[in-house]
Amino acid sequence: MCGKPIKGNPIRIKIDGAVMEVCKDCSKFGKVQKVPRRSKFAQNNKGKNSRRNNTSKRNYSRKEEPMDELVEDYGSIIKHARESQKLSRKELGQKINEKVSVITNVESGKMEPDLKLAKKFEKELNIKLIEKAETLDLESFKNLADGQNSLANVVKFKKPKK
Hints:
By secondary structure, the chain is an alpha+beta fold. The chain is 33% helix and 11% strand. Among the domains are: 9-33, no CATH class; 71-132, Orthogonal Bundle (434 Repressor (Amino-terminal Domain)), CATH 1.10.260. The protein has a three-stranded antiparallel β-sheet with strand order 2-1-3, with no helix packed on it. The chain has a two-stranded antiparallel ribbon with strand order 4-5. Helix 4 (89-96) packs across helix 5. It is elongated.
């Protein structure tokens, strides 16, 4: 904190929720924290393959990610389904454990529901809001005949709302 180089072992303190290592002079400004002990697992596996080494070997790819997306007119679908079941926003909110304002904002399109909320709507109203997104093979766009790659060659434009 003071900017002086720390001589010897630093002292671990907590000030306003932040834990930091400081010199002996600055340790009076916070509450001294205990040095975290190493777990028995970490001590036993010092020379062996630890868990950290195993996770770095995992090979993740974007192709494995779930590609779910919300349908374009989700608000009107939710509103129509709710009205066809003769439910008020308050009643629907109680059934899915959400505030009326959330339902109002989603129906009007001011708020886009996350996947968890969309699944609640799907389950309660028996509608389909989540669809699998098309995967796009970018390799096929690398070797275009005219030789010029641009964003317009790859992007799919959504239809404007009417």
